[in-house]
Amino acid sequence: MHPALDRLQPYPFERLARLHQGVTPKAGLTQISLSIGEPKHAAPPQVVQALIDSLDALGTYPATAGLPEFRRAAAGWLERRYGLGGALDPASMLLPVNGTREALFAFAQAVIDPAAGSLVAMPNPFYQIYEGAALLAGATPYFLDTTASNDFVPDLAAVPDEVWRRCALLYLCSPGNPTGAVLDEAYMARAIELADRFDFVIAADECYGDIYLDEAAPPAGFLGACHRLGRNRFERVVVFHSLSKRSSVPGLRSGFVAGDPAILARFGLYRTYHGCALPVHVQRASIVAWNDDSHTLENRALYRAKFDAVLPILAPVLPMTRPPAGFYLWPDVGFDDETFARELYATQNVVVLPGSYLAREGRAGNPGRHRVRISLVAGLDECITAAHRIRDYLETRSS
Ligand SMILES: Cc1ncc(COP(=O)(O)O)c(C=O)c1O
Q1: CB count in 10 Å sphere of residue 95
Q2: Closest atom of ligand 1 to CA, residue 103
């Protein structure tokens, strides 16, 4: 078997299940799960209808490159969302993927030379796929801690040149999971400059790109940054997008990658063998989703209402600022995060994820230590009830 399989870490939810083992939540309280980042808002009806109407496509093998209409719809959204001046050619600069998760994993396998002893740099805390992808590609993860002291933004300037020299791939995630932090275009320009100088590729995970809280301040994206730098062939940059969060359809498994056509040509070759073409009926439903922005506006309004309702309830016990984007709270609870998650489960039947499960030991310990990730994915009423229960738990604990 592949020796790197032994280096894969248990997934955070496996660890959470173990943490809960033997604990029986207090009777009479229905469970509220705020641990998984799985959107629960209703799927847009027109997307569901398009899926149903496309089931005749079940008799068709999909092509790796996808339908031209799919690529045009996704490119059209990128253009509207990030302003690319028409630079993105949907035929050569975009490929469908089955959600960003598999693509983020597969990308490392295609980009990294397993014999080169490369490093893969990534934020810490992170989406765990980055780490597994690096390990199975024969590389070594290099963690860029994101903490309150750097505003949850990886400090690229603190990375030694010898690390950059060995770096083959840099994963960045904006808006960030779990921190909600966003990178601006000036930051992206610095990352691109480093990629040029040290010859590495940037994988920009932007799957939360349409989940932000201020309608007047949509988060920047790497392709927009490239365009404004005059890099209209998006050299060294590939972005990862998904309908899972944007359109609340995580079960559709629909996303795309876009950017540097030279890299995507090689990635496309890899994907042909990988055999993960996006089914035609999924593409047809996705075309409807990427062509419509009104449902994303409604989606954001629902998340905003939850932040507005929950933060004041928690403020007296768990003060925190509203993140600019994403649907997570990432508070410092002031004591052991596993204890918090276990006690909250036992006493209030509310499930949250210990922050240390989403991170590794970094330069100053585990940056998720003493933090928990609270996903505001449940309905508004449930989120409000959960916030009252968290407050009740903390007030009782400190009394
Ligand atoms: C940061 C990040 N990237 C990627 C994904 C994968 O999403 P999907 O494969 O549904 O597009 C997730 C899902 O939670 C995520 O949080």
Answers
A1: 26
A2: 9
Ligand 1 center to residue 123 CA distance, Å? 14
pLDDT digits (tens, 9 = 90+) for 307-330: 999 999 999 999 898 999 999 999
Per-domain boundaries in the chain: 3-42+295-398, 60-292
pTM: 0.97
Does the CB atom of residue 317 touch ligand 1 within 6 A? no
Beta-sheet pairing, 119-124 with 94-97? unpaired
Q: What is the CATH number of domain 60-292?
A: 3.40.640.10
Question: Residue 338 and residue 357: Cα distance in Å, rounded?
Answer: 9
The CATH number of 3-42+295-398 is which of 3.40.50.620, 3.40.50.2000, 3.20.20.80, 3.90.1150.10?
3.90.1150.10
Instruction: Please tell me if the CB atom of residue 66 comes closer than 6 angstroms to any atom of ligand 1.
Output: no
101 lines ligand 1 (CB under 6 A): yes
What three-state secondary structure class fits 83? coil
